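Feature request, filed as a ticket because there's no other form

It would be nice if the structure record came with a short human-readable summary line next to the tokens. Right now we just get the raw output. Example of a typical job, pasted below so the devs can see what we mean:
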Amino acid sequence: MLEFKPVSEQHSPLLRKYYSQCTYRLCEYSLGVTLMWRDHWHPEFAESHGCLVVLNHSAHYGTIFDFPVPLPEEGDVDAALDDIDAWCVEKGVPPSFGVVPESERERLMRRYPYTSVDNNRLWQDYFYTAGSLSAFAGRHYSGQRNHINKFRKLYPDAVYRELTAADHDGVEDFWREFHKVFNKEDADAKMEVCYARRLMEQAGQEWAKTGCVELEGKIIAIALAEVCGDTLVCHIEKALPQYEGVYPFIVQSFAAANSQGLTWINREDDAGDRGLRTSKLQYLPAFLGAKIRVLARNELSGLDTVPVLKTERLVLDGLREEDKADYNRLCLDDARNRWWGYDYRDDLKGEWTEDYFLDVAREDFQNKQAVNFAVRLDGRLIGEAVLYRFDYKGGAELGCRILPEYAGHGYGAEAYRRAAEWSLYSLGLCCLRGKCYHENAASKKMLESCMRPAGEDETFLYFEKKV
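Raw output as currently delivered:
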């Protein structure tokens, strides 16, 4: 299974190995953004089949992956996605991708039958041809050229040059003055400035393309970017606004100095900031890069209530309050639940209460992670059938357990067959799986009644049915 490590600056060379050759062009697929926003997204990374897999953690979205970044001629994206799926099944979370390149959306849509997709305008990146920002040629850029000419007239001694680690003190002076004139009250905007200031400390690193505008020994504008594939991804463009025309001056100068041989310049998103949007549009982007969020869902996503299923002798339906005593007895039977392969104590937080098992079952259904059927004989709960471990590609696992006093009458097999039939032909699964311990003869017989053998290991016998 994937083993993730928190991203830190020491991992920069490894991450750049992937990002430097990445063809996705979006700013999230870069070292600068990963480092700059690491206190916000808390990214972790793993390597899988020649691909970089980044997992982010969001208070709003939960765990959310970047799309795997393959090494050219070496990375296997589908195999990396398989590893992501396996990790998600083990963790009980749906595969969720926060920034999917538009070229890869169809791959995920084919992979996961049920998905929700959005493409938020606030986060679309602004892309410009490298030649247009480097030259400001043509009448469409006459306004920018006029601003630059005015800047040169007002400040004839201003020069653009590369920024190095030796400029640390000058950059700190710039930030101190920038904070004095920064007048945005938005919390995200303030956070971005703080993160940018920290990232600017990477000036002098091999991957960082940096530049500044200097006037009489004073730094009045700074920029930082990196090359990813055929794109210059600009992470920082800051200037002291009292120097009229300094922004278009550094935009053009920085592009001209760092985009040779490249096709695109990505100046990142505007985050809904009106001023940023106006400015970025004035530079005439060639297109806006979509950032598509894809959340895989399973077959339970369309189910509002636990259905009622009937057999010749039994009824399978949702758990009720009046089932609490029998259900607790079923879940607390350690001797019998040895065959269930799960000990509730592994996940228990705090002390056990009489509502614990009912609450867990209801929460799992609410979160569309599982559906627990009460197995009833003459209205009384005698066991449960549980559909769980959804793989979000049309598969899930089915288990069943019966109270000891009702064992030996075929109730488990009868309930299992009915739940399996519903899962495949009503819910819409295409593959149903089950397993039992080698020594559990009763469960083996139950599984054989409606499934085919699908292999074994030292512990379990595996079964499945495909339709």
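Something like this underneath would help us a lot:
The CA atoms of residues 221 and 239 lie 4 Å apart.
The chain has a mean pLDDT of 95.
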